Amino acid sequence: MGEPQPILDPLTPAAIFLVVTIDEDGEAVARDLLADLPGLRRSVGFRMPGSGLACITSIGSAAWDRLFSGPKPAQLHEFPGFAGERHRAPVTPGDLLFHIKAENQDACFELAMKIAERLAGAGAIVDQTVGFRYFEQRDLLGFVDGTENPEGQLAATAALVGEEDPEFAGGSYVIVQKYLHDLNSWKALSTTEQEKVIGRTKLDDFELSDAEKPANSHVAVNDQDEIGTIVRANMPFGSVQDGEFGTYYIAYADDPAIPENMLIRMFLGTADAAYDRILDFSTAVTGTSFFAPPATFFEALPD
Ligand code: HEM
Fold it and tell me: 198 CB less than 6 Å from ligand 1?
């Protein structure tokens, strides 16, 4: 298995997510950037000891075909998008995803600037989301987010491609979606009602019992025992000026069908629920799929 990118490292207090499109004829510049990225990260990170600066770089399906002539990860395809009766998960453009994370925002910002400089004239940054750790690892709905992520070997098995695709073993399929929360309607709910939407208690983060937990709660819809396991690295983001409050959803999986099935259940419903009730308070405004190759893939790209 190739050495994975730092997908399994713990969540950091700061992150920047950059989604980039590559211009027509921008392929050579993008390829050079990908080849130089490990060195760029070292240059920025080494000057900032203790920053823990890391960058997970992922490539979309169409971009893969434009950039490389060799083999392609077996399950790599565009984000399909999902439309339920009430809520939609749109498809938005993206050729490359840079998931930059560190202990401090300055380290993330410095690397983001270098990436932007290197892409100038050959690509566009179509989304920049600055994520932050909110207190007690809560999202902006006030609930602790990430508790039921797998740990240790289980996390590696959930996130990393194995011998089913030996060329890309150690890589990971990635889905990102930017969700905006309607905090006014959310805050109009009592805490007990909010707990029924999520399926866990708000203050101390325990899962509700089967008897208490509605079938359309977020946790019931995304039951990992039933669907399979993913590694989530969600981060809150927001602007008080724009009244924008959101969750940047990012999932890593060894098979994109698992997070896609979760989205089918959330948007189109399950046998027992019309849709995930979290969607009444959270609107997906982006949706893009990528593949994060093993770290060794970038080291092997010609300079
Ligand atoms: C669980 C928040 C979107 C998959 C949770 C939990 C929270 C949460 C608070 C409970 C604690 C935990 O185990 O992490 C959110 C928010 C979202 C969002 C605020 C955006 C509005 C999604 C999406 C997916 C997803 C789009 C999948 C496509 C899961 C899974 C669990 C979970 C698999 C764990 C279920 C379990 O095994 O108990 N989420 N989530 N979430 N969420 Fe989300």
Answer: yes
pLDDT digits (tens, 9 = 90+) for 90-101: 999 999 999 999
194 lines ligand 1 (CB under 6 A): no
Average pLDDT, the chain: 97
Give me the phi and psi of 178, to 5 degrees please: -100, 125
303 catalytic? Reply is no
**How far is 247 from 238, CA to CA, in rounded Å?**
8
Write out pLDDT tens, residues 4-50. Answer: 999 999 999 999 999 999 999 999 999 999 999 999 999 999 999 99
48 Cα–ligand 1 center, Å: 33
Question: Ligand 1 centroid vs 145 CA: distance in angstroms?
Answer: 7
Which protein residue's CA is at the shortest distance from atom 1 of ligand 1?
A: 219
- Cα(232) to ligand 1 centroid in Å equals 8
Catalytic residue among 145, 254, 255, 276: 145
Amino acid at the residue 265: R
Q: Output the residue whose Cα is nearest ligand 1's atom 27.
A: 262
Q: Are 273 and 221 a contacting pair, CB within 8 Å?
A: yes
List Cα–Cα distances, 208 to 61, 98, 147, 196, 200, in angstroms: 39, 36, 14, 8, 5
Residue whose token pair is 């039933």: 226
148 lines ligand 1 (CB under 6 A): yes
